[in-house]
From TrEMBL:
Protein name: Gliding motility-associated C-terminal domain-containing protein
Extent of the signal sequence: 1-23
Alphabetical keyword list: Signal
Provenance organism: Flavobacterium succinicans
Pfam families xref list: CHU_C (PF13585)
Amino acid sequence: MTFFLKKYLIFCFVLLIPIICDAQTVNQGMFSVEPGTQLSTIEKFKNDVSGDFVNDGELFLYNHFENDGYFGFSPNLSSGIVRFRGQQGYQNIVGNLPIDLNNVEFNNVSDKYAFRVSNDIAVFGKVDFQKGIVKSDPLLGSLVFEDGATCFNADDDSYVEGLVEKKGNDSFVFPIGQNSKYRLAGITAPETINDAYTQKYVLDNPNAIYPFSNKEASIEVINNKEYWVFERVAGKADVILTLSWDETTTPSELTSGSDESLHIVRWDANKKLWVDQGGVVDKGDKTVTSPVEVTGYGVFTIARVVDSSSDNIIVNNAISPNGDGKNDYLKFQGLIGEDNTVEIYNRWGTKVYETKAYDTNGNVFSGYSESSMTIDKSAKLPVGTYFYVLTYKKSGKTTKKVGYLYINL
């Protein structure tokens, strides 16, 4: 027998089997909350081993939540939402079986770490971070965003402290942080829905585990306050990575220099070495983005590299290959010699051009793809934004200059 709720109810009794257990609400049978229905429970809510709970309405949970049965929603409906609204302290979200949520709101003002998660939560719709930090147990808890799932309103007052996983082929900003510091990390859209990645922010010095003395020559100063752990856990696609900075945690010696010297670096576990992943800075958003897909996974942070802004290389980064003799190709004024490499990538991280000894024998980028995957190499690339990566030698050190490139008609 299935119970269907069609009106607003506040309940603090046992569903289906009327037994009182330490002032908690227990579901031990089949229970369905229909669309347009509001249901609230004041006491701890437990979905027992025999419980089958389908929420397509609006479920308000004002206390702890334990799931040992099936807890989900109808796959053809998007109306279901669970609103965690703790009023008397933090809320434990625990249990032995995963929790499938369509949409969820975290809104608890009574405790800093308002939501303490020791279970796997999978979200298929939207997550609204209103108030309260979601702290997940490193061994037992995680928040998984399924394909198409999104989140919004994350800030210093509400985010995830712990592991966040994203599945699917959507670009995504991970709502992560630590110690009341929201420190987002973003990725571009992977290739398939089978790709999956995890992110975690750590407010600690990585030097003790990943020594700064082991680094590429172009890296000058590495962030000694924080790092991100970014892993690919399913699929084969690589992505472009974005990290954020904040003046209250990120050392000023990193952000006070030129934009071109602020890069993302990665600890290469095989080489036991910090390697440069490049960087394009957005000062308005306080982010730095790898200009191309990352070359590996693991530990990432922000670093200052050899400053190329003093090399007197001027980039004419707007090209219009229309044959009028003006801005017909990408120019690097001041680039001398043949010991250099130029790479061009589209906004999805696909390489469309590469050459060595740029502009020494007519080898310039004029808006055409020379990728091995391009069928018609006589066709112009679409109008839009691209990334350039110029790698050259400076005083015996390898230097990277990266930035945006605009193709217009």
